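A reminder before we start the practical. When you read a complex entry, don't treat the lines as separate problems. The point of joint prediction is that each chain is placed relative to the others, so the output describes one connected object in space. Small molecules and nucleic acid strands, if listed, are placed in the same frame. In the example below there are two entries. Take a minute to note the order of the lines before looking further.
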Amino acid sequence: MIEVNGINIGEKFNSFSEYWTPKIVGELNGQFVKLAKLKGEFVWHNHKEEDELFYVYKGQLQIKLKDKIVNIDQGEFFIIPKGVGHSPYAENECHVILFEPKATAHTGNVEHELTVKNQEWI
Amino acid sequence: MIEVNGINIGEKFNSFSEYWTPKIVGELNGQFVKLAKLKGEFVWHNHKEEDELFYVYKGQLQIKLKDKIVNIDQGEFFIIPKGVGHSPYAENECHVILFEPKATAHTGNVEHELTVKNQEWI
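Here is the predicted structure of the whole assembly.
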């Protein structure tokens, strides 16, 4: 019987270094699983039709919403409902796993210098 | 400004002890995020229309497919495509995060004594 291994998240994170450029590592049911390294503040945006999950694999992430601040520590997650404006902020380098529909652009409704048009598989 | 915290996966795992009873911890885009504790061998089944992601949060999981065995260590994940028969097996207690459509029954096409009809939120 052939034996294969799962996809190692840590190894995938080691394979790239750029910030704010989500990489695709899995696809299921019309959704992508993505990894991203974050540092500093991202552009304020929303996703009109898509909920977005942030799971902090390493480090700490803060997500600023209109009326509150969400502090997400390592091993925690938070779901931003569709249409809700948000701005991720990481004081130090932070590694996150994202779950979101394939159609989701990471800068949502905003065209920005940080916008990556063609997100790549790793 | 109000500050709130992310949802802590470790604390959620500490809140239940049963094996093979996935608990819902999040919902987005018609999908559920679930946590499950596994030990021993599960019933062979498939999900006709739904891909299913297993992420091993703690421990080790083996998933038997028809033609291969998938070894998923802590920090690794694997996606079982729809229609593919599979049987999870954990020699020792294993904690997994599942990502799958809301409609997914954990025993798939099989009605079994382990089938949990109404999966609960924690």
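Discuss with your neighbour: The first strand of chain B starts at residue 2 and ends at 5. What might explain this?
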